[in-house]
Specification:
By secondary structure, the protein is mostly helical. The chain contains nine helices and no strands. The protein has two domains: about 1-50, Arc Repressor Mutant, subunit A (Orthogonal Bundle); about 55-190, Tetracycline Repressor, domain 2, CATH 1.10.357. Helices cover about 70% and strands about 0% of the residues. The N and C termini lie far apart (about 45 Å).
């Protein structure tokens, strides 16, 4: 129970911070604002994050909250490719509606220069657990190519998805990430299919 409470506190801090970053911008949001919006204390904030900048790596936690939601609503009758396309569409809609391009740029920048843990690559994230489940299902049913391992399929999907986000950042978000992905992702993923 205690661990669950800690995770809930951290999650509240992360969610409140990203909502404030979206509404007011990263530079215009203070630690005090985050503490107030999350209904926590400064002590709790600094227990989980050494500074506001440390929150940059936590965007992947916000993404994982979305994947937790999606996992509950994922239609089991969809084939593995349809599941990946659905997951992608829902995440990219969330990004377009709640994550400023500048913040996503900062996330990628922080992940590129960090010497410690890279949250985006953490294999224990909900994202990778869900991908592993879909890739394994596709392997077992013969939907995906047999010459590719589950890890190969996961990595290919993750690279394609990150590449689309990266390009969207380079383009300053001047097009719909979700619409573009829905056009090109099925073509890109066909190469994984048997």
């Amino acid at each position: 129970m205690k661990r669950q409470q800690k995770n809930q506190t951290k999650s509240r801090i992360v969610s409140a911070a990203w909502n404030l970053f979206y509404q007011y911008g990263y530079d215009n949001t203070t630690v005090d604002d985050i503490v107030e919006a999350s209904h926590t204390s400064k002590g709790s904030f600094y227990h989980y994050f050494e500074s506001k900048d440390a929150l940059m790596g936590s965007l992947s936690y916000l993404f994982d909250e979305k994947y937790d939601e999606l996992q509950k609503t994922l239609d089991p009758s969809l084939d593995p490719l349809e599941k990946l396309i659905y997951m992608n569409r829902e995440l990219f809609l969330m990004i377009e509606n709640t994550v400023p391009v500048s913040i996503l740029v900062q996330l990628f920048s922080a992940q590129l220069v960090t010497k410690g843990e890279k949250h985006m690559l953490d294999p224990d994230r909900t994202y990778f657990r869900l991908l592993r489940q879909i890739a394994a299902e596709g392997q077992q049913t013969g939907f995906f190519r047999s010459d590719l391992s589950v890890n190969d399929i996961m990595k290919a999907y993750a690279v394609i998805e990150r590449g689309m986000m990266y390009d969207w950042c380079l383009s300053s978000g001047n097009y719909s990430l979700c619409q573009y992905s829905q056009q090109v992702l099925p073509m890109m993923l066909k190469g994984l299919c048997a």
